[in-house]
Amino acid sequence: MSTSNQNSPNKLTTSTGAPVGDNQNSLTAGPRGPVLIQDVHLLEKLAHFNRERVPERVVHAKGAGAHGYFEVTQDVSRYTKAAFLSEVGKRTPMFIRFSTVAGELGSADTVRDPRGFAVKFYTEEGNYDLVGNNTPVFFIRDAIKFPDFIHTQKRHPQTHLKNPNAVWDFWSLSPESLHQVTILMSDRGIPATYRHMHGFGSHTFKWVNAEGKGVWVKYHFKTEQGIKNLDVNVAAEIAGTNPDYHTEDLFNAIDKGDFPAWKLYVQIMPLEDADTYRFDPFDVTKVWSQKDYPLIEVGRMVLNRNPENYFAEVEQATFSPGNFVSGIEASPDKMLQGRLFAYSDAHRYRVGANHNTLPINRPVAEVRNNQRDGQMRADGNGGSSTYYEPNSFGGPTESPKDRISPFEVSGYANSTAYDHDDHYTQAGDLYRLLSEDERTRLVANVVGAMKPVEHDEIKLRQIAHFYKADPEYGQRVAEGLGLQVPKA
């Protein structure tokens, strides 16, 4: 339910002045979507948001990258027909970009922030991008809230300072963020290096095999270097003395032949389980229990080559979760559905309509399309080839065998929230899994982050969320802030 006062004359509107009826939920075909392109408010928010910064990335501006390869180590062909996963021993070249999320291009590497984990596989069927983070969940579960969320992480429009009031006001009014907030404020909120953290696809995706049978899938990259994190005081010292610490560490490790590696595992869920699982499997603020859906090994990623030119390769690299190959498809995850549009749109703005013709983004598969002209068209621009389809002159034509697998949709088109609103069980389970020392540091990090908040109302609202996840969690945060857990 929206927290805005429905009787207030101060109505939220679109850029043309039309009132916005729902700013919390995208317009979907039934409760599970997919998201409808007729949701003009969602498209306007995302399109405008992508154009708010020039020229650096709106999010994930500060990052480092490396080349490498992905090698299949286990047969998963019964789950997916994706060619690059088709046989054990097959190697596919890839490029990865690690990043912080909220900071600007010159910000410090060792801040408390999620880390981007974006992988581009140069497959024979075209590029496949897996654009994830170092956490298995996210702060929100509907893309319509993404511009608002990131605004809270950026700078105040008057003071140009970070604004903890906005951060905690938004989180306290968006209880779905609690799981990710708990991870962020834990020891894993500041990785020691990019090499010493896991990576996750975070979203649920769909794999389809050669017989057309589908399964739901989640990706887990497990670091072979082991998990290491930074103490908050050490991280602050490094931020002041070497703000490019993670960038330097990755480059130096590869330069001296200490090639970092990750094992890729997946969780597989039968399609029909989505209707009965105790959490909505498409809600990116939730995880699937590994007891219910164990990890299955897929392959190994090794980074063995540094970029020759940072701008040409790392800065101009463009990733989109919409870059699929045959055998891998989207799910009804509402956050994912919004990203399918927003990421490619951001690249068309930031780098240009022809960003995929740049060497770092160019697929190894031959490109045959009717896209012509545009700024910075540096290739042959299609020459004299046929530039439309259908045609009678031997130009490229559609490939019916590569259509996505059909899926059923039902219900009324409406701005619909997820059916499940349990934002506390998994956050509480995570808190209880931590050791006493880890809990102490988690609470200290939360208290330290919330102390600058100027309004007790915001603090109390957030304390109530912690308490619902675990009474001890809420009580300890309240005590740290010199407040009482709200009686309600």
From TrEMBL:
Residues 1-28 have a biased composition (Polar residues). Belongs to the catalase family. Residues 13-397 form the Catalase core domain. Residues 1-31, 373-402 are annotated as: Disordered. Transmembrane segments: none annotated. Keywords: Heme, Hydrogen peroxide, Iron, Metal-binding, Oxidoreductase, Peroxidase. Pfam families: Catalase (PF00199), Catalase-rel (PF06628). It is an enzyme of class 1 (oxidoreductase). Its EC number is 1.11.1.6. It comes from the Bacteria. It comes from Paenibacillus sambharensis. InterPro entries: Catalase (IPR018028), Catalase_3 (IPR040333), Catalase_AS (IPR024708), Catalase_clade1/3 (IPR024711), Catalase_core (IPR011614), Catalase_haem_BS (IPR002226), Catalase_immune_responsive (IPR010582), Catalase_sf (IPR020835). This is Catalase. The active site is at H60, N133. One of its GO terms (biological process) is hydrogen peroxide catabolic process. The lineage of its organism: Bacteria, Bacillati, Bacillota, Bacilli, Bacillales. Its cofactor is heme. SUPFAM superfamilies: Heme-dependent catalase-like. GO terms for molecular function: catalase activity; heme binding; metal ion binding. GO terms for cellular component: cytoplasm. Heme binds at Y343. It catalyses: 2 H2O2 = O2 + 2 H2O.
